[in-house]
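Submission sheet (multi-component)
Chains listed below:
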Amino acid sequence: MRVLVMVAALAACLGAGNGSAAENEPNLRRLFHLVGVPDVPRDARIDLEEGADALIFRTKKVSYQVPFVRLRRVLLLRANRRYEGATYAAAVATFGVGGLLILKKHPVDTAVLDYVNERNGKMGIVVQMERAQGELFSDLLKRKGIPVNEPEAADATDRSKP
Amino acid sequence: MKSFLFILVIAATVLALAIPVNAAGKENKYEYVQVNRFDVEQGVDFPADYQLGMVENLVKQFGKMKGVKQVLREGETVPEGKPVLVITGTVTKFKKGSQAARYIVGFGAGSTVVAAQLKCLDSATKEVLLDRKVDGKVVMGVMGGKSEGATNGLAKEVAKVTKEKFF
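Outcome: structure written.
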């Protein structure tokens, strides 16, 4: 019975993170916020909406707008993400063995938004999203006439000063 | 006579508490801080998301520092007639590390390191007031700790050394 529970827990954890909303109906919800949106902690889930003239980053408590005209550069980088929550749950459920789930990498796109504030000061926002969401985001920006830089190589880095 | 001495001691204590900054020998003339983006040394692969993260973490650190009235961004006009401390520098080392190695192996394996040469300047005179090496590391943490946390560590060290010197 214990083995059955462990296998079920491990299977559930392996499935976690893959069953994103992006698979069924592509949207820009439940992205991972890394840095830049005020009062939103790192790794918090955040929704991205397309406003009439701005991108709107939204959580339950925060709504933050970045007007399209203030966007200077957008980078879309290939990256990998590890889901600590699922790994922790697996480790607890399987008496530590599930901790090896940390080895599993989830391919994501890292979007780096370079923009200026109303006083012309340089600002930045970094969010991570599923690959399908990355394509959707890229299309959204291109529709608005904002160039998106997508370096070809995986784990691409950009050494220039943004 | 006793009450006179008592009043004298109280007065001396109040006076000492009122001027702690000057007593410590710090200038504390900068109430405005401008955080500029750091350059990256040739040959160092420092990802763009880490660069932005570092600046945002620096802004956050200076934003909650006592004695700092406003944190300005690169490109913003500095207030006229007010001394502004400019924070800038160059990233000299970046070791990506591995969260999995930190979690599974431990003992310093897979650590993420960001090192930079910090420069603090006076915005008006461009005089370099502080030139120092700083770094941020992620050696351990919950499930190995996120590698991006290294930029936060570096920002905390920058805040610490500038606080010691200027605030």
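Remark: Chain B has five helices and six strands.
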